[in-house]
Specification:
Length: about 375
């Protein structure tokens, strides 16, 4: 794969594999001195969010649903990425219990999951366990990486799905037994995180992902006729992404297939391309950024309103940091510094107990542990942009 300068440093920060501060460091200096006070507010919000997450952990060590270790992985990742490094050693008892719970979900096939959603759970669990610092996790991590690679689709009856990755065949309904952009994204992030954290690990070519097939699948989820013959021809959708080839969550359930682009999946598509090392001048990357600028919002998930709003915020921060974008070009030609705007929005939305939650339940966003993890991770990325 081509390593591109535009993403290397920022991508490392978005993955949490480059540590901007040593363990238990004093507060790192801001990029601009005028941001110090605002950044202190962000740190306070992070502290309050992590405090809320501590109270939400169960006695067994997990968060939320015990059948889905991904819901425990996300809080653990949020604690690890706290800007001052206070939790980075992972030696606090509550963190040890969280990591132990994830290990307890390891399966004979190499995956880390409970009753289903095997790729999604394994991918996030792998990213979390990379931070544990426990040598005993090495075999578990290698097996999880191999499990994820095996989930890549090939020889599908619907050829447009080849190269992508879905929830996994174990314990899911038939409508979820196909690749989608979101699961492909979390798989790519896990594989890139593993490679970055274990750069000397020997991975034979036959045991690696078919990255070109993954790029081709991602391209088939983008509304860009020059690279996807089945893309929407509506100019309003150009450059944006849908959930999987031929299906968009932004379309009306009983209406025609308009393949409407929407915010969260467009950030997912952009980030997926970056994980696959596409260059910034590639028309697929440039078109995604153009659609995101034309549809920029911190008040809704464009195309879906409040549904998936906090996941949208989370993906926005990860994708734009990875892309090295400090200012996003809007439809009117102006540029917006997205990071402080998004941070202020999250500070306003934080609840009195330090948590966040959506008032719209779709994609589990009424779960305060899930949404608080999204928000803390978002603010931790923004903290290092100021």
């Amino acid at each position: 794969m081509i390593k591109t300068a535009f993403a290397c440093l920022a991508l490392g920060l978005s993955l949490g594999i480059l540590s901007p501060t040593p363990l238990h460091a004093a507060e790192p200096l801001p990029r601009k001195t005028e941001n110090l006070s605002f950044r202190n507010e962000i740190q306070l919000a992070i502290d309050r969010g992590l405090g809320a997450l501590k109270t939400q952990q169960t006695a067994e060590g997990h968060w939320s649903n015990a059948e889905h270790p991904a819901l425990t992985a996300l809080p653990l990742i949020a604690f690890h990425r706290e800007p001052t490094g206070a939790y980075r050693a992972g030696n606090q008892e509550f963190l040890k219990k969280g990591y132990a719970f994830i290990r307890s979900k390891a399966q004979p096939d190499g995956g880390i999951y409970g009753r289903g959603l095997s790729n999604y759970n394994t991918s996030l669990a792998l990213v979390a366990l990379l931070n544990s610092g426990e040598p005993k996790d090495e075999l578990l991590l290698a097996n999880a990486r191999a499990f994820i690679v095996r989930q890549q689709a090939k020889g599908m009856a619907v050829e447009s799905l080849d190269g992508g990755i879905g929830y996994g065949l174990t314990g899911v309904s038939p409508k979820r037994q196909h690749p989608d952009l979101d699961n492909t994204l979390v798989a790519l992030e896990a594989l890139r995180s593993y490679r970055a954290a274990r750069p000397t690990a020997e991975i034979p070519a036959q045991d690696d992902l078919n990255w070109q097939a993954a790029i081709d699948f991602i391209s088939r989820t983008q509304n860009l006729p020059s690279h996807n013959p089945k893309a929407s021809t509506d100019p309003a959708n150009k450059g944006g992404f849908v959930y999987y080839p031929g299906y968009s969550n932004a379309d009306a359930p009983e209406g025609p297939k308009a393949l409407r682009s929407y915010g969260s999946m467009t950030y997912a598509g952009l980030l997926s391309f970056i994980f696959a090392d596409l260059q910034k001048h590639d028309p697929r990357v440039a078109s995604a950024l153009e659609w995101l600028g034309n549809n920029f919002s911190i008040d809704e998930n464009p195309g879906l309103g409040r549904a998936g709003l906090y996941y949208y915020y989370h993906l926005m921060s990860k994708a734009l940091v990875a892309a090295g974008v400090e200012e996003l070009a809007l439809a009117d030609g102006k540029k917006v510094a997205w990071a402080p705007l998004l941070a202020k929005k999250l500070l306003d939305l934080q609840l009195g107990d330090g948590s966040w939650a959506n008032d719209t339940a779709r994609w589990m966003e009424k779960d305060p542990a899930l949404v608080t993890s999204y928000c803390v991770l978002t603010l931790e990325l923004i903290y290092h942009q100021l």
